[in-house]
Amino acid sequence: MWRSLLARTVVGLVLSFQGQAQAGQETPAPDEAPLPEFVLPTVEVIGREVPASPVDSAPRRDPTGAITVIDARERVGEARDTAELLGGSASLVVQDSGGYGQSKNLVVRGASSNGVLVFLDGIPLNGAGGVADLSLIPVALLERMEILRGAAGARYGAGGLGGAVNLVTRAPSSRLLTSGEVTYGSFDTVMAHVAASGALLDGQALVLLHGGRSQGDFSYRVDELPALDDNPLTQEVRTRNDARGGGALLKYRHGLDGGGRVDVLAELSLEDRALSGTVQNPTVSRRQEQTRLSLGARWGRPFGDTGEGSARGFFRRDWLDVTGGSTGVDAGAQHYTVGGVEVEGRAVLGRNALAITLAGSSESVTQAVGGQAASWWRASVMAMDELSLFSERLKLVPSLRVERVGHYTLLSPKLGASVDLGHGFGVRANAGQSHRAPSFLELYIRQGLLLPNPELKPERALSVDAAALWHDDVWNVTAGGFAAVYENLIAYELYPPMLAKPYNFAAARVWGAEVEVEARPRAWLIATSSYAWTRTQNRYGDPRYFGKELPYRPRHKWVGRLRVGPDWLNGRTEVLVQSAQLINRVGEARLSLPSRTWVSVGASSTFLRKPDLTVSFDVKNLLDARTADYTGMPLPGRAAYVTLAVALDPSPPEASHVASPP
């Protein structure tokens, strides 16, 4: 039923776009009018330039934060998923449980996946367990990815112990633009999407449909008797790794009098995948079906020359059903609902740029097993000041959020500073506190053998970081360090005979260094590199574990990428080197996942114009490195993919060297 509904929607919108485009041949449609951004004047400087980034972007929400922005449009035609693109940033580690459609989570600066906030155009994606699954967000939806590393509680709310990621979807266009892309490759993997954008009802609209499937049945070698030396390896085939899914994205943008704008978004995602379990306890028939509906609307407008107001509303509903489990372990159907509003005002008063945010939301979860249900309200007040001194060379940015989450009251302060040293050099530093309230599942919902604990306390993070920056027309370099103390960490402990229950008993220290480099000496040459050195230390009082490293936190991670060539023929290569990581808190080397080196190569050619036709070829894991996920299940070896992309009447930016469909 949903397929026919989406098909009728697409046909109607495309016909509307065609009519608007034909009318535009007689009267040219005006260019797309972006929302004006408020200017931050000071008493020393007159006529300051308008900031290039949108008002709700990460650089504007946290002006001194450790931020990386990834332009997804530069990766058009590549067989990459959202988690892979994010994994190229410093201090972000992807926890991957398989191929296409299998769960993919992020660990940022040593914080667990449920301590990283993920948003889709400002709509929170973290579920009832506090974790956001990136496999449900295809790259086809995205325009850019904004990553904030470090304390995110003051600007983004509870849950941002290690950072926050905002996934920004494609913007609609006033011109008629259509595109499509299909990828086929190893393990019988197929991915495709079609998109159309154009003028509609005195505004701009975008519709995008996507879908894909994969069998995931790759072969691997395993030592069935690891306790014996020189034991021969046997050939096996990975099963319970298949997945299929699809969805749609609808966006509408309308300009208002006085420079205001309204943006509306609707996103639907459906997925069905097999669950393999762990190496020690594999499943035979367990599957997961998940549906997500996200709705969002944002209004914003300037007030005079120095003020601005905005309001945002959002709603999200997740349907999750796990079947095929054994009696007493099956999780059953689960519904998670969240909705809320956020109102923000900004004003410039002399050297100060003040911002105040009021936010409120409601969350609820129900689970079929045992008729379990829970709900609570969230409310928060945030205030931020951006103080500019010495002709804006020095900026001090204090912020504070007071938040009520259920019966928890949380205080998240942060102080940031940046100094412009001239000639492209600068420094920045931040210190802050963040919290993560326990999730619904940890507090109230029993999941098979996992018991809830309503007495849990919120986790807390105290974080500091500092970095030096340099940039010019070619280079962009950032190098710095960070440190954090995580307290009251929540972890499950065995509750005999077979049950487990969460407790606040762990504490940890994390510190490290980060380097990110980008070079663009020519329009046809781009080189990027990121490196992170991360040390962790368990501070739990048990002498067996005190001082040991935390599991699933590799010390070293380096990613290098090179792209060479014009549109008509270009090549690329990417190398990921990641050190070994422990799998439990005992700290023994034999109980660890080995280091990995993944080399990927690819080539693309846009061989026809108007319409643009681009063919791409990618080989992932060229050296066929055999690795495992955090449960011990093998990850795919060498894989090859071919992609064909078509763009009708495209209008890419003049400086772009890649075809950019809408």
From TrEMBL:
Main localization, broad class: membrane
Gene3D superfamilies linked to this entry: TonB-dependent receptor, beta-barrel domain, TonB-dependent receptor, plug domain
Pfam families to which the protein is assigned, alphabetical: Plug, TonB_dep_Rec_b-barrel
Membrane topology: Multi-pass membrane protein
GO cellular component: cell outer membrane
Family from the record: Belongs to the TonB-dependent receptor family.
Organism: Corallococcus carmarthensis
Domain (TonB-dependent receptor-like beta-barrel) ranges: 251-622
A GO MF label: siderophore uptake transmembrane transporter activity
Keywords: Cell outer membrane, Membrane, Receptor, Signal, TonB box, Transmembrane, Transmembrane beta strand, Transport
InterPro entries tied to this protein: Beta-barrel_TonB, Beta-barrel_TonB_sf, Plug_dom, Plug_dom_sf, TonB-dep_rcpt-like
Signal sequence interval, chain numbering: 1-23
Domain TonB-dependent receptor plug: 60-164
SUPFAM superfamilies: Porins (SSF56935)
Protein location: Cell outer membrane
BP GO terms, sorted: siderophore transmembrane transport
The protein's name in its UniProt record: TonB-dependent receptor
